[in-house]
């Protein structure tokens, strides 16, 4: 029900995203989803890759001088229509579960959109999604 995500912390200067993605590409790492957030001093690049490559990629990045963190997120399928996102967020709001961040996943699933969610309480969020029939992708489904 949870998938692993890699977060890379970097300086917020021109070219760092290019350098990171070139490094990953040169090492055969295919990005499935990516999110970039910044402040005036640093950036956080979060991404999803094949789940069986997480540990090796984290080590590769650390060995390459990057500051890396691996954590668990939830990947859900939602209706790709007006208010599809609002329905999911409403479920979480009613249960007082905050969304720390979210971003979309590059995957064609027909009539649905795929989201990556980092929740204030991922266990409660997963239980809620299960109860409400929201599909949560497993690591095997992302392969």
SSE order and pairing:
Layout: E1 2-11, H1 16-26, E2 33-38, E3 42-48, H2 54-63, E4 67-79, H3 84-94, E5 99-104, E6 112-119, H4 122-132
Antiparallel strand pairs: 1-3, 1-4, 2-3, 4-6, 5-6
Features:
VC0802-like; alpha+beta; 143 residues; globular
| Sheet with the most strands, sense and barrel status | 6 strands, antiparallel
Head-to-tail CA distance between termini: 14 Å
What name does CATH use for the topology of the largest domain? Answer: VC0802-like
Number of beta strands: 6
Q: What is the name of the CATH architecture of the largest domain? A: 2-Layer Sandwich
Rounded radius of gyration (Å):
16 Å
Overall CATH class of the largest domain? Alpha Beta
Tally of distinct domains = 2
Overall mean confidence score, pLDDT: 92
Class from helix and strand fractions: alpha+beta
Which stretches are low in confidence, meaning pLDDT under 50 for 5 or more residues running?
none
| Strand order, largest beta sheet | 2-3-1-4-6-5
> Can you give the helix content as a percent range?
25-40%
Question: What share of the residues does DSSP label as strand, in percent?
Answer: 25-35%
């Amino acid at each position: 029900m949870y998938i692993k995500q890699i977060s890379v912390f970097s300086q917020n200067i021109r070219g760092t995203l290019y350098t990171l993605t070139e490094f990953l590409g040169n090492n055969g790492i295919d990005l499935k989803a990516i999110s970039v957030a910044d402040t005036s001093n640093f950036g956080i690049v979060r991404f999803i890759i094949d789940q069986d490559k997480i540990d090796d990629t984290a080590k590769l990045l650390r060995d390459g001088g990057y500051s890396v963190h691996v954590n668990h997120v939830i990947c859900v399928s939602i209706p790709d229509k007006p208010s599809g996102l609002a329905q999911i967020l409403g479920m979480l709001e009613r249960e007082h579960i905050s969304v720390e961040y979210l971003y979309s996943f590059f995957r064609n699933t027909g009539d649905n959109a795929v989201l990556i969610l980092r929740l204030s309480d991922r266990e409660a969020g997963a239980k809620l999604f299960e109860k409400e029939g929201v599909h949560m992708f497993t690591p095997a489904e992302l392969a």
